[in-house]
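Attaching the record inline, Q. Sequence:
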Amino acid sequence: MQIQRLFLFLIATTLVFAGCEVPKKPDFQTSQKVEAPILYNKTYQFMGGSNALIDTTSTDLDSLFVVDGTNNFITISKEQDFEFGDLNDAVPVVSVDPTSFESQVGEIEVTDFSSDGSGHLGEASFEDLTGVTQGSVGEGDNVPNQPPSTPEVTIDLNTDLFESATFKDGALNIVLQNNLGFNLDDINVTLVSSPTGGSESDVADGSSGTINDGEQTTISIPFTGCEANPSSCQLANPAVRVSIEWTGTGQTFQRDPESLVVVSAVGDNLTASQVQAALDEQDFSTTSLATFGDEEFEFTSPDHFVLLKSGRILVSPIQNEMEFRIRLEIEFSDIRECPASLVGNDFVIDNDPLTIEYAGEQRIRRAENGEPGFSPEASVSLANCKLYATNNEVAYTINAFTENTKDNAPGDQIRVINETQSISSDVEISNLQIKEATGIVRQQIVLLNDEDADDVDENLDLFNDNEAELT
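Structure, as predicted:
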């Protein structure tokens, strides 16, 4: 047993010495080297100068971060300044197309043929009408019976206010007075045209019916079929050819016989296409429209308007083809509430609605020797006027009045006028600058461009077409 224990001890001791390295002197360093870093650190600058991730020294990033002081929430933002410029330019542009007007005379009304107020345009004697010698009979004598054939007598009319006309419609009323001393059964009248240098022609006729001595009767001479045959309705240097009918049995002369008198010749709704005469005032009118562009602004309601900061109405010199001076009014019914101070200036006679007049020194001159007459140019300020333009249209009405040539001196009364003659001009509403606008503004889209080299201010001006485009 002791021998076995000793043997085991020797074995254990031998194994211990075999597994250990016994250094010659104490040294606790091992012979292997291992580098094993636990964490690798690298520093980056987030904000700062040009080496930082975000260069906050740049002029356009000086307010990049906004910090909410309540919860320290950081907002990254970028601000860009826009310069709007003059806000007056932001108001929609309203432009008006120039327009022209032409107003023709149209049908001409003829009234008086003579200025003679005595009631005596001409007469036919008792002897000429009856064939009985003037002094052979007198008051109380028996009236002779009418012979089988009675004379026709032509009476030239003293129509100093009328020379010629081409009629279209209506009638000429001729008033006759019986001064023959006995009663008549009828008076037959034929209207005769006697053009200078031409032959006579019958135009139309009519009759009176019974007319007693000392009484007047009106015979209406109608103008019919003129449209189909205009030449049949031409009248120049008028005269009347008359004949009478009577019954002599049982009738005595109520006075000494005298004559049959033409008292007057007056038009009854008598219209003409051309007249050479002294005429009363003629009036004619027309209505025109000036159109606003609707690209930026629409007037869709009667209460939509623009209040103008400035602008003008320009009416070119009015051309007059007639041998008459013209008084003319232009009423702009859609231009209202203009300053009262406009009234009394050249042309303006009313500020609400705006109305201009050509009269006095501003009158429209007459045509002479085949050359048209003209008016001065009219230029009226529209500053502080309101334009009401429903459906983007401005209406204006032209009313024209010719002079009454009957009021002129005798040598200046007769004029030639034709229904196709006209007055004409151009109307322009221009240079409009708007102070206020009420209506429908069309949608605008802004396209931003680059900084204008001529306007370097680090701002984009929305109303600079080189920096921003409105479409």
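Residues 444-470 form one domain. The chain has a mean pLDDT of 81.

More tomorrow.
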